Amino acid sequence: MTVQAVIDSLPGIQWITDPALVRQKSRDFFWYSPVLKRQLNGVTAEAVACPRDEAEVIAILSACVKHQVPLTPRGAGTGNYGQAMPLKGGIVLDLMGLDRVVWTKPGVVRAQAGVKLIDLDAHTRREVRGELRFHPSTKRTASIGGFIAGGSSGIGSCTYGKLREFGNILGLRVITMEAEPRVLELRGTDIDKANHAYGTNGIITEVEMPLAPAWDWVDVLAGFPDTISAARFAEALIASDGIAKKMAGVVAPGVAQTYFKMLQPYVPAGAACSLVMVAEPFLELLKPLLERFGGTELYRCETEKAETPLYEFTWNHTTLQALKVDRSLTYLQTLYPAPNHFALIEKMEKTFGDEVPIHLEFVRLGGVVSCFGLQLVRYTTEERLAEIIDIHEDAGCPVFNPHAFTLEEGGMKRIDSEQLDFKRVADPHGLLNPGKMLAWDDPDWTPDRKRSFYLYGQADAPEVEEVLE
């Protein structure tokens, strides 16, 4: 069976078949990782399907099953791990045409998967004075469906945690890949069957999300004498439940000065920086916090009026800003478990120095203020990168590997039996985004390392702290 057979059977669908355009739609930001760049650079589909509504999605899925053609769903393509890359060729399903807000109510919104996050926030602010609880640093380009399928946290996670925190997604409308596709509404704990599953076990066409109050946010950049002072300030801000805030990131001395072009005029040599978003009524409370940790305000701007908002210097955008200057850089994704997180940060900074410049993001994880690292790495070889990961994990800093394209090898670190069981039902032929779920090919897969850290899985699974004991 062939892709052309699918195309011929669906003449009413909008198709992209130009090889250059198909290749463009077959890629995401996998090249952040030199490992993934080596592995995935030649990956491409044979055609791209661009449905305009759910009925067309169903028709495409049914035709692909009939002709046994693999299908890889795609949003805006802003992911970093090859989630949307068609490893087995076939067809890419571009869902950006499903771009309608279905309805909006106070505190909640329902939208089709292709709605851009920035447009969704603008709509909910206008209609009900609400906004998404959190969003990735790619807010201005990413889609809501892509965020649910491939993302996990971001700006706002300092208050509301990760997407897997119960209540951060209220509903998912999912289409199965069967000869006669079914439309399923996942709610409650069933949401985890398709949340952060890379579209391997169903196509998300609609999402229902809770909203937070839409504050007037202000970006503030602050300088500190060292990384730990900046980190202690960021943690104290996140722990201040009376202050409405949306972000608290930290970069070590040299990072902002070298890689953040827009901010360079404001940052003195040798300063570590904290990048925060605070609601306007609470700005006066920053001064005593800054004084407590030896910080100085360097820059302030209303987020909506900034040419480049500060959130585009945090989370995965920190790496992107650095790559604009030095394409040899890459990054890690790390957890520094409390209560020893500051000691671990200091140890890793001393161990690696300028080889692994520190970048931190403070979040709520299971209700606890926690610290993630998205450190920059001066890449030399794959062997050295693996050694750096091993040193972190041996020290008690779990790494959620951004240099792997499968669910299990990245943040999951283990087989999620719930998602695997759902795939058996929703994609019995294994045609959805093949190659991204190791458990489909090997249900007994286990990680190579002795330690098995993960952030996803069933609610009764051991927590990271339990695994560390």
Automatic annotation (TrEMBL):
Query: Does the keyword field hold Methyltransferase?
Result: no
Molecular function (GO) terms listed?
D-lactate dehydrogenase (cytochrome) activity; D-lactate dehydrogenase (NAD+) activity; FAD binding
Q: Which GO terms describe its biological process?
A: lactate catabolic process
Give the InterPro entries listed for this entry.
FAD-bd_PCMH, FAD-bd_PCMH-like_sf, FAD-bd_PCMH_sub2, FAD-linked_Oxase-like_C, Oxid_FAD_bind_N
- Where is the FAD-binding PCMH-type domain positioned along the sequence? 40-214
Q: Which residues form a coiled coil?
A: none
Q: Which UniProt keywords apply?
A: FAD, Flavoprotein
Protein name as catalogued: FAD/FMN-containing dehydrogenase
